[in-house]
Amino acid sequence: MQSRRAFFLGSTAVCATLAVPGLLLAAVSPQAVEGAAAFIARLADQAITILRSSSNKMENREAQFRDLLSAGFDMPFIARFVLGKHWRKATPQQRVDYQALFREFILKSYSRRLGGYSGEAFAIAGVKAAGKKDVMVKTRIEQPGGRPITADWRVRPHDGQYKIIDIMVEGISMAVTQRAEFNAVVRQQGMQGLLQALRARTGNFGVAS
Fold first, then answer.
1. How confident is the model at residue 195 (pLDDT cuts 50, 70, 90)?
2. Phi, psi angles (nearest 5°) of residue 108
């Protein structure tokens, strides 16, 4: 498992969390709760299948992960949440550039880090509604020779489709840390500074496929 350090320290932090007072809002349907759990389980099975494929080269596994992550995460929503208030102040062109760079950074970061497999086991440990729109799927990752890791996936159902909008590892939302890092860079270097940093980071990953 990678460090939970933020963006510029090579974090795998991604996605967004919304503080929703669930007691004040109607919960999602039981069908959506079950569907979200099945979605995460299916995503995990597909990921492990890719990881276990010894016949695939590393570059091929990374490319397959890119496709899997691209389909599973709500990238536009995540990107806007992480940028926070600076999204409103960005120019139309900056928004376009940022969305593209953020997406590429996340896909390359995850696919590169998840390109290997060392026997981890993944299990659904619980699922519950999280406010009016979302479902929280709790998972447990068993590591050979290491302590288990808990990860909660915030899933948003919409028209029968499911997208991940947050990952919380050991109770810590990755997006909150990521958002603080982005805000700090924009305050110090402006929006163009953030875009330049994203370009540098994605460039350092190289081409996976």
1. very high
2. -70, -40
pTM over 0.85: no
Q: Please tell me the distance from the alpha carbon of residue 69 to that of residue 53, in angstroms, as a whole number.
A: 17
Asked if pLDDT for residue 171 goes beyond 50, the answer is: yes
Neighbouring C-alpha atoms within 13 Å toward the C-beta of 49:
8
Q: What domains, with CATH codes, occur in the chain?
A: 30-203 (3.10.450.710)
- CA torsion 38-41-44-48 (nearest 10°) is -120
Cα separation, 144 vs 110, whole angstroms: 21
| Pick from 124, 147, 120, 148: nearest CA to 136 | 124
d(CA 8, CA 11): 7
